[in-house]
Specification:
There is one protein chain. By secondary structure, the protein is an all-alpha fold. The chain is 64% helix and 0% strand. The chain is built from nine helices and no strands. It is elongated and about 55 Å long. 24% of the residues are buried.
């Protein structure tokens, strides 16, 4: 006869807890960006973010055990905004589409983004092992978006049939990240258009007169 199972011993088989509620994640991540821009990476704390987002500290610490993880998630959220495929511009030309991706920014917003990038630079100087993860977070959303525009241009016959779309899609995000993190210079509209006209379009085989 089968023996009944012994009673559970405390700690031996943890009960499943409640599912974590991620509905407030976007609000918390926006608060993290605000605190990072204001305090810098060194001055920022998870407690500050919890206070700004009016969220429980324990919730944040369970979701993001370290400040670095919180910052990387927040940057990823910021970079992904307005880059979903259904919101990408469709002007009929590659140049028009790429320029259409440039979001108009006020001087205040540009300065804020510079402070955020300075915070990322400070994070990487202290935790260089996160460089690969940070690069993916900073560049991946824009790489995917630009690749979509390149595929559209290829279907139109606007760029070379043998164009390396993966390489081309990485050019602008990589150069922008270098300028923002390493050179600590603004990634303004003029700079981005110069990259489009001087580097990406020629590399894709778009004649200067077509730009």
């Amino acid at each position: 006869m089968t023996q009944p199972a012994p009673p559970a011993i405390d700690g031996a088989a943890p009960r499943p807890g409640r599912k974590r509620d991620h509905s407030r994640d976007p609000e918390i991540l926006r608060a993290a960006i605000d605190v990072l821009a204001e305090e810098g990476f060194d001055g920022m704390t998870i407690d500050m973010v919890a206070t700004r987002a009016k969220a429980g500290k324990a919730t944040l610490y369970r979701r993001w055990p370290s400040k670095a993880e919180l910052v990387l998630d927040a940057i990823g959220c910021m970079k992904s905004a307005d880059l979903s495929p259904d919101r990408l511009p469709d002007t009929g030309t590659l140049r028009g589409d790429l320029i259409g991706m440039i979001t108009p920014r006020t001087a205040e917003d540009a300065e804020r983004r510079m402070r955020v990038m300075a915070g990322v630079a400070a994070l990487l100087s202290r935790e260089p092992e996160l460089t690969e993860a940070a690069s993916a977070v900073l560049m991946s959303p824009r790489i995917v978006a630009i690749r979509g525009l390149l595929e559209r241009a290829l279907a139109r016959g606007e760029i070379r049939a043998d164009a390396d779309l993966d390489m081309l899609a990485r050019l602008l995000p990589a150069l922008a990240a270098f300028r923002g993190i390493v050179e600590r210079k603004p990634i303004d509209r003029e700079y981005q258009i110069a990259l489009i006209d001087g580097i990406l379009l020629p590399a894709a085989g778009v004649a200067r007169s077509d730009a």
